[in-house]
Please model this.
Amino acid sequence: MDKERYSRHLLLPEIGEQGQLKLAKSRVLIVGVGGLGSPIALYLTAAGVGTLGLIDPDVVSLTNLQRQVLYSTQQIGELKVEAARKRLLELSPDTQIDIYPYSLQIENARDIINQYDIVIDGCDNFNTRYLINDICQALKIPYVYGSIGAFQGQVALFDFNSDKSYRDLFPEQEEFQSLQLPKGVMGVMPGVIGTLQAAETIKKIVGCGNTLTNQLFTIDLLTMQTMVVEI
Model:
């Protein structure tokens, strides 16, 4: 462990050396390395997570750069997972970055997810979230959910120690497949939600604080109103 690099963590009794060692041994999968995945990946790499898996089939485009702070203008056209790995290894060369330059599908989801201790949702569609939820629930792997649109965002954690899951938030898949989500988003919105997802992940790995287990946190940046409700 690089004690100088993680010295500010080591000063926190809630994390300390034992917590930092837990982070170093942890394996975290981020599904989607876009707006949400950018801050999640940056902060978890900086925090000392030992192995980070990145799955995303897309390439960096100009429209991404208003909110996807992991990438640069020079990386337009590159696969996101390749561009992300370069940046993250610059931040922490000792972090293992596993990349999957394709979509999470029912054919590969179980094999991929089963390699990790916790899965974070950085995607932007209901079908992938149902798939993450169902595989994580079957394997008893914690799932950190996040979603954004326009000026609003929400975060939840499902650890499957109870019967609560993402389907308790959105129980009817068919009802939401055709739902028109806001196409615009304030550039900082994924930064707010992605950072909270990273924080929930760190707390879950280390075992400190109160996590959003079976709770939904919501925020509206226009009004700065927040709310936490039981699922």
